[in-house]
Amino acid sequence: MILLLEILHRTRRSTLSHTPNRAVRETSMIVFVLRHADRSSEDDALSAVGTKRARILAHMLAESGVSKAFCSDAQRTHQTLAPLKQELGDRISVTEFSTAGQAGLDGHVEAVVAAIKALPPDTIAVAVSHSNTVGSVVEGLGGGRIDAIGDTEFDRLLVLFIPPNGRETLLQLHY
Question: Nearest 5°: phi and psi at 125?
Fold first, then answer.
């Protein structure tokens, strides 16, 4: 997994175009989209397993070039990002979008998608959300539909490559 992320980091600016017989170098945005790490039953906080998974995520993404992070207002999304924020310090900015209020979950998804789409095309970002919003974020960014995330599934890591030509590529990994 770490090797894959190192390869992604080193080659993020050299994605081949889908145009036959033409190797066009493009700058691609890379967005890691995932559900928050494991939580304790109905508690908003991460479980011990979730805390360990958050540290694994930080280890995986620390050298990826990620500079922007997005999460909800839930404590568990902040705790999932905390080890990465601790590792990167000022090299990463975290923006929170609420899931409460009039806009609710749809407003949260729309805000995350709009914020990511507004980033420079060579940005590497991470969006930590929830089982019922991750799919909508991926779809909103052009990654297509994904299988539903189960209630006890916390290990899916979606890596979306967004080149300027709009031919998004989605990798589905587990960590």
Answer: -130, 165
Q: What is the DSSP letter of 37?
A: P
20 SS3 class: coil
List the CATH code of the domain at 2-174: 3.40.50.1240
Cα torsion 148, 149, 155, 160: sign: positive
What is the distance between the alpha carbons of residues 22 and 38, in angstroms, rounded to a whole number? 44
What is the Cα–Cα distance from 104 to 124, expressed in whole angstroms? 26
First to last CA, the chain: 8
Query: How many other CB atoms are there within 10 angstroms of residue 48's CB atom?
Result: 9
Q: Could you state, in order of their start, the residue ranges of all structural domains in the chain?
A: 2-174
Specify the pTM. 0.85
Report the alpha-carbon distance of residue 15 to residue 47 in Å, rounded: 38
Could you report the per-residue pLDDT of 95-111, keeping only the tens digit for each? 999 988 778 899 999 99
| Angstrom distance (rounded) from CA 160 to CA 56 | 20
CA distance 170 to 32: 10
Q: Whole-angstrom Cα distance, residue 124 to residue 65?
A: 6
Which of 3, 47, 20, 175 shows the shortest CA–CA distance to 126? Answer: 175
Question: Which of 92, 28, 105 lies closest to 57, judged by CA?
Answer: 92
pLDDT tens digit string along 8-19? 444 444 333 343
